[in-house]
Structures are given as C-alpha cells and as structure tokens.
Amino acid sequence: AQSVSQHNHHVILSEAASLELGCNYSYGGTVNLFWYVQYPGQHLQLLLKYFSGDPLVKGIKGFEAEFIKSKFSFNLRKPSVQWSDTAEYFCALNPYNQGGKLIFGQGTELSVKP
Amino acid sequence: GAVVSQHPSWVICKSGTSVKIECRSLDFQATTMFWYRQFPKQSLMLMATSNEGSKATYEQGVEKDKFLINHASLTLSTLTVTSAHPEDSSFYICSASRDRGNSPLHFGNGTRLTVT
After folding, report:
1. What distance in Å separates residue A50's CA from the closest CA in chain B?
2. pLDDT tens-digit readout, B77-94
C-alpha cells in the first residue's frame, strides 16, 4: 500500500534553531515527492519538490530536502528557523504515472518561539 | 503563475440540503482535478480524481452517490455534497495540474463546509 509517514506531530523550536522534519514513504515504484506548507488560515503552498536528478532539492524560504532512496525518506531541513515559519508542514507522495494524485502524510505542526 | 480558484470559501447549510463547490483553473487547462477532504488537525485525504469528460474515480470508502463530481470542461470541476449531514462538515480542497503529475500541483483555497 502507498503511504506517507511523518514522525513528528508537533515540533517547538526557538528562532535561529535548526529544523529537520522527518518523512518516510511506502511505495515500491518511482515517486515524485513534495513538501507543502499551510500557514494559519491559508491554503497549501508548495515548498519544494523532487522529480528526478539531484536528490538534494532546494525550495523557497531557505528550505531544502534530501531524497534518500535506500531509506525511502525525504526529510525537510532549514538551518535557521524564523517565527514566520510557524505553520503546518505536509509531506506528500505522487506515484509516478498515477497522474497528479497525492498521498499526504499526517502533517507536522511547527511552532517557532520568538 | 497558475491559479486554482475555489468557490465558495465557506458555506453553512442545513442538514438534508445539498451544496455545490466549484473548482476552476484560471489560466491553464486541467484535464485532471483532485478533490481532498481535511478534517481539523488532520491531513488531506484524497476523495476522488475528476477527469474531464468522463466519470470520476473515487477512493475506497468515499460514497460516489453522496459526493457527486462533474468535470464538464477543462477548467471547471464541481463537487456536490448531497443530503449533507453534520458529519460531512469539513474542509474541502481541490487541486489541478497541467499534465499527469509532472508539473507542480496547484491547490484551491479550500471550502469550509458546516452542516447544522
């Protein structure tokens, strides 16, 4: 079965701390991987995506993620978080050749203390 | 950039009535649109895949007679919640892409449905 697992439900950090949010997926074939962010009261926005090529992908607002195929992981990182990064973060999987269907993880709520 | 518009943003209806939610791709043609449902503090769950000119494909456990999907044109898909009940209260979100998963997916702002 296809699934996405985000290990952390709620992460609390102080400003300038480093961030790493875990994401593991279960799917035997080729995948496209995404991280989305949902700020309070707003819609989902794409942070970054991996389709192929360099497994280290850089996104907006200083975020990056690394695809490790052997570990079925796609962890999100940011060296120094800001208060404005407070939001819900979703990892999502798109099985290749299944159109735009996305399978989402449970989400991780990030709270950054000023 | 590409934008997906969803309407209405929020709706309150009485139990037993039907509600229609529209999802429009504003500057591109979307042969496929997706409908998700998000309960409070939970992730998005795919309800159905809407294909222009053909029947929608529903995920397991989603009642196709209750959640009617119509994709009559390349820029419009509608989701109708029929005979709504309080347990249907949720946040409904649509998404669209230009092609089969190789372009960024764009999400609508979502529709907050409250059934009283």
Report:
1. 10
2. 999 999 999 999 999 999
